[in-house]
């Protein structure tokens, strides 16, 4: 073997050109293999699932360690992930689908279609399968937004992407393309023509070559529906004094949603109300607050210029929110005089504190402060972030602290509580992805997530218990109630802050409520990250907090916290 190796070396020393030629060919072959594996391989994901906090008492038993665990400013975060999953971008999409059709796997198409039906039955809660439809690259069947992922496309991912943007339909094509829309503008075809497996979900069907597998989405909130850039607000009864409630009116014999929304946008009004053949524009006010929605059937009169959309009637209006910003609640400043009391906006991390600050600033017109300093929040408009928390120039102070000394430094507090299952996931996303980003799948599947739950779940309970025990004047607000009835809950919060706010300003906040601090649904997890042991642990903490709230004659935790 050694003799052969020496001959090999002597051969290439005499003919260096051959050596470099051989080296180039070797590197080229290696590069081709690497590129090929990047297109067809799946990223390796660690399956390590550490056992969550052990030794949790049975249901109904006391949790003596809760009172001793105070994790706040000095809490030590878990280490960074040891590995990050490879990211795959969408491929180039040509003008026609012929080349892409070659990428599909047609073997066993009928058996895959049968398997896909099983998956569709599981999807019934969030979407209903409509059928297989023809799709034309020159005239799309679904004409809303679209996105492609030739590595990890799944049915859920497409549905969630479209539902988050308020579309009624989601369609999958070529196993990797997702299209959204409010109506299907194509003909139905045989089920056998939708025969391509989803790139990220084996056994499920994601359309075919120029064929869409279409689902009708069951939206969690109808108000999330959109028409282009306009947000659907609902069907509402005609206000008593129409000219004062909606000051701009225009007759539109050939009414369509586009025409009315465009008119109100041009006139710089945030609301467009369709009333049959008339378009009205205005602001949400006490005369037209958009709080009492009517059955959509009362507004179900088809638009004269648009077959598939409703344009309301003279008595019941279909209302859309335009892209015009309602500036009645956008002015903010520091307090004109130093505040005589320090009021905390206290919450466990991931419970919506940043969102609550956004709402409070819009409602009161004053900046909120922070016990910490976050440069990214300062750059996004939270100017009180840079002030010392004792400066007295801000209306309230964000804090995640727990413990007697830290809590007693405040004269009063708004305590924001959120479902721990949601709060833990939100904080984990923030920790590894930023304020509106997402943790990578490698973090969820690796050791970081079990370790995070083990450390943070008990803190969720002790945080609330400490504020209830040591807080001087505590107003408890549940995050879920704030989302469901923002007008009432925000009014309670502003009342504690001692600021007189006009009702019209609160209505303005409702229309601007999301701000820039809402995560898109595009990268939501497609599985439940909580193991049975984690759920048992967290359920015990929920019961402790629920008992503590009720013991102080307060409303217990919302019903959707459990069972899980």
From TrEMBL:
A Gene Ontology cellular-component term: Golgi membrane
SMART domains membership: WSC
Family matches, as PROSITE patterns: WSC
WSC domain sequence ranges: 126-218, 229-323
A Pfam entry, by short name: WSC
SUPFAM superfamilies: P-loop containing nucleoside triphosphate hydrolases
GO molecular function, one term: sulfotransferase activity
Name under which the protein is recorded: WSC domain containing 2
């Amino acid at each position: 073997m050694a003799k052969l190796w020496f001959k090999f070396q002597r051969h290439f020393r005499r003919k260096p050109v051959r050596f470099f030629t051989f080296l180039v060919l070797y590197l080229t072959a290696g590069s081709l293999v690497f590129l090929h594996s990047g297109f067809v391989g799946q990223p390796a994901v660690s399956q390590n699932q550490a056992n969550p906090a052990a030794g949790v008492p049975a249901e109904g038993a006391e949790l003596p360690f809760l009172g001793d665990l105070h994790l706040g400013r000095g809490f030590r975060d878990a280490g960074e992930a040891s590995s990050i999953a490879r990211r795959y971008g969408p491929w180039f999409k040509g003008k026609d689908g012929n080349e892409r059709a070659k990428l599909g796997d047609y073997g066993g198409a009928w058996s895959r279609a049968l398997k896909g039906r099983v998956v569709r039955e599981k999807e019934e809660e969030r979407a209903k399968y409509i059928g297989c439809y023809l799709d034309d690259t020159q005239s799309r069947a679904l004409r809303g937004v679209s996105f492609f992922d030739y590595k990890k496309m799944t049915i859920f991912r497409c549905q969630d992407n479209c539902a988050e943007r308020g579309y009624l339909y989601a369609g999958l094509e070529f196993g990797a393309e997702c299209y959204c829309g409010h109506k299907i503008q194509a003909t139905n075809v045989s089920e056998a023509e939708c025969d391509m497996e989803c790139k990220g979900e084996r056994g499920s069907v994601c359309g075919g070559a120029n064929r869409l597998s279409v689902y009708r989405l069951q939206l969690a909130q109808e108000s999330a529906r959109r028409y282009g850039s306009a947000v659907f607000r609902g069907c509402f009864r005609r206000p008593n004094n129409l000219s004062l409630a909606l000051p701009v009116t225009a007759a539109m014999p050939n009414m369509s949603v586009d025409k009315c929304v465009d008119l109100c946008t041009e006139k710089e009004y945030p609301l467009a109300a369709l009333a049959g053949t008339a378009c009205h524009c205005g602001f949400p006010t006490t005369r037209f607050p958009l709080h009492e929605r009517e059955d959509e059937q009362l507004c179900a009169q088809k638009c004269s210029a648009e077959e598939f959309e409703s344009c309301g009637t003279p008595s019941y209006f279909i209302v859309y929110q335009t892209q015009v910003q309602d500036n009645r609640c956008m002015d903010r400043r520091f307090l004109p005089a130093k505040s005589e009391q320090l009021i905390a906006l206290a919450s466990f991390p991931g419970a919506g504190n940043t969102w609550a600050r956004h709402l409070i600033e819009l409602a009161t017109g004053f900046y909120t402060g922070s016990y910490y300093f976050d440069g990214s929040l300062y750059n996004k408009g939270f100017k009180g972030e840079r002030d010392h928390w004792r400066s007295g120039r801000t209306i309230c102070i964000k804090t995640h602290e727990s413990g007697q000394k830290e809590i007693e430094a405040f004269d009063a507090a708004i305590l924001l509580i959120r479902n721990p299952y949601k709060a833990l996931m939100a904080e984990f996303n923030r920790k590894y992805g930023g304020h509106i980003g997402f943790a990578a799948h490698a973090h969820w599947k690796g050791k970081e997530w079990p370790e995070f739950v083990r450390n943070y779940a008990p803190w969720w309970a002790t945080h609330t218990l400490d504020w209830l025990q040591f807080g001087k004047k505590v107003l408890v607000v549940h995050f879920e109630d704030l989302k469901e009835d923002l007008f009432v809950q925000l009014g309670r919060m502003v009342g504690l802050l001692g600021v007189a706010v006009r009702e019209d300003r609160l209505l303005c906040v409702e229309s601007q409520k999301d701000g820039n601090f809402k995560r898109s649904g595009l990268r939501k997890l497609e599985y439940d990250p909580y193991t049975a042991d984690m759920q048992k642990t967290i359920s015990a903490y929920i019961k402790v907090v629920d008992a503590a709230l009720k013991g102080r004659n307060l409303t217990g935790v919302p019903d959707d916290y459990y069972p899980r």
